[in-house]
Amino acid sequence: MLKNEKAFVVFSGGQDSTSCLFWAKSMFAEVEAVTFDYGQRHKAEIQCATEIAKELNIRQTILDMSLLNQLAPNALTRQDIDIDQKEGKLPTTFVDGRNLLFLSFAAIAAKQAGARHLVTGVCETDFSGYPDCRDSFIKSLNVTLNLAMDYPFVIHTPLMWLDKAETWRLADELGAFQFVREKTLTCYNGIPGDGCGECPACKLRRAGLEKYLQEKGGSQ
């Protein structure tokens, strides 16, 4: 039974990972958060994640992944790279190998703590074309981690087949709607809550919110 087990959540303090954190709290006996410092453009992201973990009484580990910034320059870590997406190409916010490395390091930390469950907010429905958010990648990595460490990891992706409106619904069902709306940071410009409203992340988040509120209002 999951209620007797421990899970590690890959946690950034954004809408998706915070929804996953609440989901994990409802599913597992014990939950820990792993946050990665990879030279994000806005340190507010790590601060936000730390504040949420503290408020929810979740043990948090912050790992230094600054090497990723050195290896894979991108708009999330470099001020001189504009946030942009050209037709037929990945957005400049894509960080090569990020989820591969994050989940691998999370797995190492989880094994040391005696946890076999990993939770991540990747999503193939609203994934901006990121290859490392696909279900096929997660399933492949799950097998690889089990073989590499001879340990029965299970990677959980509660948002994999949800669009943003359905992610808002999940947060609401978990009693975390206002918490997620007000205290998370999804904005590429480092503005918490509803964000700047102009960057791709904010537009996706807002469109999902408006769709969910409209659907919720119509069902009442």
Please summarize what this structure is:
The protein is α/β, with parallel strands linked by helices and 220 residues long. The protein is 44% helix and 11% strand. The protein contains 8 helices and 5 strands; from the N terminus they run βαβαβααβαβααα.
Total helices: the number is 8
Q: Can you write the helix and strand succession as a string?
A: EHEHEHHEHEHHH
pLDDT average, as an integer?
87
Shape: globular
Q: By helix and strand content, what is the structural category?
A: alpha/beta
Show unreliable segments: none
Q: Which band does the percent of strand residues land in? A: 5-15%
Spatially, the strands of the biggest sheet line up as 3-2-1-4-5
Radius of gyration, whole Å: 17 Å
Classify the helix fraction into a percent range.
40-55%
Largest sheet: 5 strands, parallel
End-to-end separation: 35 Å
Q: What is the count of β-strands?
A: 5
Account of the protein in words:
- This protein has a 5-stranded parallel β-sheet, sandwiched between helices.
- With 220 residues, the chain is α/β, with parallel strands linked by helices.
- Helix 1 (15-27) links the parallel strand 1 (6-10) and strand 2 (30-37).
- The protein has helices spanning 15-27, 44-55, 67-71, 98-112, 135-149, 164-173, 177-183, 200-219; strands at residues 6-10, 30-37, 59-64, 117-119, 154-156.
- The protein contains 8 helices and 5 strands.
- The longest helix has 20 residues, at 200-219.
- It is globular, with a radius of gyration of 17 Å.
- Helix 1 (15-27) packs across helix 6 (164-173).
